[in-house]
Amino acid sequence: MSISLKSWSLIISLLVASLGSWLFYRELKRVEASTATAWEEDHRADCAVVLTGGAGRVREGFDLLAQKNIKKLIISGVYPQATLREIFPQWVFYGTLDERDVILEKRSKTTYGNAQQTLPLVEALHCRDLILVTSRLHMYRSHRIFSSVFPHDFVIYPRGIVQGSYHHSRGELVVEVIKSLFYSLWAY
Q1: Are 52 and 114 in contact (CB under 8 A)?
Q2: DSSP structure class, residue 25
Q3: Are 134 and 54 in contact (CB under 8 A)?
Q4: At what angle do helices 136-149 and 170-186 cross, to 10 degrees?
């Protein structure tokens, strides 16, 4: 008795669906496990990289600079025509910060691009370690990408912040898990 082509197609489809579901669930648990480390840990490093794209991230970077937890702040993924004062109008309330300690990286458009474009800046600034600032939801993927692009012995401290609600909607989680799965195929 032989199995028909239609039966084989069904068996293969079920196996692929099962594998896909398992991979999705595994990645979902990893993304959900990211914590808001900005509340729990206080790192010091030579530099910080802030990934644009959400409320509170840039302010967190400036807070690190103002508290002297870092020496240089790189804001990655900035709109090409934007100025520092447009990005962070609260600058005037931060006292004696020096504009030369803030670098606006304006070439990247993706998280992978953020890592690729900031690596030469980090090297030029002679940073020995850095704090990576992004949202709690985005941290798992961002940290994995930066760790794959930067030298393996380079220390990257994740600093996840809360944007909006601490708990994300299912839609936000699904989008982030799909992005993470996509990046896992070629970026890390």
Answers
A1: no
A2: H
A3: yes
A4: 10
> In the prediction, which pLDDT does 39 show?
66
pTM: 0.85
pLDDT, residue 126, reads 98
pLDDT of residue 108 exceeding 90, the answer is yes
What pLDDT is recorded for position 36?
Answer: 66
For residue 49, the tally of other CB atoms under 10 A from its CB is 32
Distance CA 161, CA 94 (A): 20
Q: What's the half-sphere exposure (Cβ side, CA atoms, 13 Å) at 6?
A: 0
**DSSP type of residue 4:** -
Measured between alpha carbons, how far is 94 from 9 in angstroms, rounded to an integer? 63
Write out the two tokens for 63.
């807070």
What's the rounded Cα separation, in Å, for the pair 72 and 122?
9
Residue ranges with strand state E in the chain: 47-51, 72-76, 102-105, 129-135, 155-161
CATH architecture of 32-186: 3-Layer(aba) Sandwich (3.40)
